[in-house]
Each structure stands twice: as structure tokens, then as C-alpha cells.
Amino acid sequence: MLAQEIIRRKRDGAALTAEEIGFIVRGLTDGSVTEGQVAAFAMAVLLRGMELAERVALTLAMRDSGAVLDWPGLDGPVLDKHSTGGVGDNVSLMLAPALAACGAYVPMISGRGLGHTGGTLDKLDSIPGYRTRPDTETFRRVTREVGCAIIGQTAEIAPADARLYAIRDVTATVESIDLITASILSKKLAAGLDALALDVKCGSGAFMATPGEARALAESLVEVANGAGCRSSALITDMDQPLASAAGNALEVANAAAFLTGEAVEPRLWDVTVALGGEALVLGGLAATAEAGAAQISEAFKSGRAAEVFGRMVAALGGPADLLERPGAHLPAAPVVREVAPAEPGRVHKIDTRALGLAVIELGGGRRRAADPIDPAVGFTDLAPIGSAVDAAAPLARVHARTEVAADAAARALRAAYTTGAEAGADTPVILDRVG
What we know:
3-stranded antiparallel beta sheet; Pyrimidine Nucleoside Phosphorylase, Chain A, domain 2; Aldehyde Oxidoreductase, domain 3; 12 strands; alpha/beta; 17 helices
């Protein structure tokens, strides 16, 4: 087979065979398909789409490009959660330990930032000493002993996806439902899951901007996951504003620490985290209903058990044992921090959430190219939600920057992303729909 002929067939709208898809995936893994060919294949898929059989074949081929874990002898189900990406979405940091506190095992393989969205792996890289890429045996041990381990893809797990993921990030091919489905599920299925709860974002800060697009992705993910033997359901959640009040890697870890310790629990962030946990516990057989599962997750937070598991996980993977107690002593901080007032006082009517994510990238908190380093300290905190009153005394946010010049640029971008007026914007529910 020739890679260029397979690309041509997809470019012209043909349905690829499992053998053709397997050839491309093997080339991704061993390097025999060039970066240019990978980019062309991704663009052809984005423009022409894939049928269900192609999507399943791509997912399974990418899963099987590396090791597939199993978990014999555990006394609870192996569960996970995945978000399709947004701004201020640090749910994984709180939910993985909460699920473990409820009796599940959570081997969470997370990704880096993609496009304008933040990545759980980049957030964890801001924790000094935390090993986001341990060897597989360490990953297994921490998951068994602590109950959860959040890491990035190791060289052994779905290596084809790791290469494709990086190329999609810088070639405007992120938004393909087919590629998103295969990317997410190849990693998750390789972790040997019993069940998977999915958070599909919808709105200005999501890859799926409209409810129809979000539902199509949710249905694709649930259909392929269930077809591959992994019980799954999805919540469609709002991303017309940041989920947390922080956007930026170390800043979102600090936000998660405040959530876990009960110091500062934001309502929208709580609602999504608890609802996803309830879904996962039902799928794993640990709760009879989503409402009962949500109650168990809530209790794990309020009792401090989730925080205790998080602290043990961080320490087991090389991070500071007192991160939750003293986040400011460990997390990197930007030298320039300033409040940003709105151009005109009023109430927040609308937020261009994607623009906020791009502003974090401009500050250095994300990547323009796959190999770019990230400044973990930069970003925004205290982001004003839709409906809030803003003026000189109640700013839009605080910007955390490396230089005064960068802070000036970020302030301009922040003001441009916010629309204020006499009337507040609509109070959209954070959980919009369910697929499962």
C-alpha cells in the first residue's frame, strides 16, 4: 500500500478499509508515514468524514498500536472520565480522587492542551516533581495502591495517537468528530477500563460550538465505546464561559486545591464534577442511580476523603506531599499580576471563551507549535462569570504574566473577550443534556 493513495481515496470521499486504516496507523507508529502525510490524512478525514466502521477501525488500530493494560484482582471497577476540552476545565484533578474514594480504580491517561483548550497533563506538569510520564509498572502500582493515577501517554500506550494528537494541534484539524473519537477512546480503551463517563463541551469555548455538533460527538463517543465493550454515557455541558474562575496551568491546580480542601468551591464546577462522578459510579455498578452516585461523590468531597486520595497520588508520583496544604509554596507564580477593569462598567452579557483560551496561549501558557515549551505560571484568575457586575472596583479578572508588555496584551485580549451592558447575559444551565 501507498500512504498517498490512501490519502487520495479519503480526499475523494471513499470509505477506507480496516486494512488501509491499519496501514496508516502502523506508519504513524513506526514513522514510515511522514508528518506531511499525517497532516494530509487528518485534513482529508476532517473534510470528508468517516463512517462508523471506519471510526471503530481507527480507534481499535490506535489502541492496539501499543500496550493494552488489564487489571486482574482488583476489588472495584476500573473507571475513568474524559472531557472534550474547554477553558478552565480542571474537573479531572478533583474527580479522579473522588471516584477512588468511592471504591473505584481510576487509571487516567490525559492529554496536553489542544488548540485553545487547556490539558490536564500540562496542569500536572506545573507541580514540582510530579511524574506525568512514569513507566507502566509505576502507573499500575500507584493506581492499585492509591486508587487513582493521572498521567500522560507513556511510550507504550497508544503511541500512534500521541503523534497524531501533536500534529492535529498545529494543523487546524482538531475539530474532526472522527479524529476526536479515535483519539479519546484509543487511550481510554488501552487503559483497560470497565466504564467511561464523558463530558462533551458545547459553546464558544468548545470545539463543538453548537448543541447539534456536541450531540453528534457525544453519540459517536458513546456508540464506539459501548461497541468496544466499555460501558459509557456522556453529559453535554456548557462552555460559553470558563468552567472554573482560573485559566492557566498552575493557576488551575491552585483552583483545584481550593476546591478539594473546601476553601473555595465554585457552583458550576461543583455541578459538573459531581454529575460526572454520579454517571461514572452508575456505569461501574457502585451506585443504583446517577442521583445516588452524585450523593456519594459529594460526600467524598465534604468528608475530605477525595482530598486525602489526591494528596497521596501527588506524593506517590513524585510531587510534594503537602501540595494541598501549601500550594503557594510549590506552584510557580508569575512576576506580574494585575487586575483588569472593563472598558465600560456594567454586567457581563457574553464571553468569547475561545478568545480567553487563545489569550492564555499568547501569554505563553499554551503552544503555537507542538514542540513549544509552556510557562506554567501565566494565565487568568478571578474571571468574572456571565451575569456579574464589573467596574473599576470589580474587575473582569486578574492577569498573571511574565512581563509588563505581556500583561498589557493580555489585558486588551481579556477586555475584547468580554461583552458588558446594562443587562446580564442569560443564565444557561451548565449541564445541557445526556447521551447514553
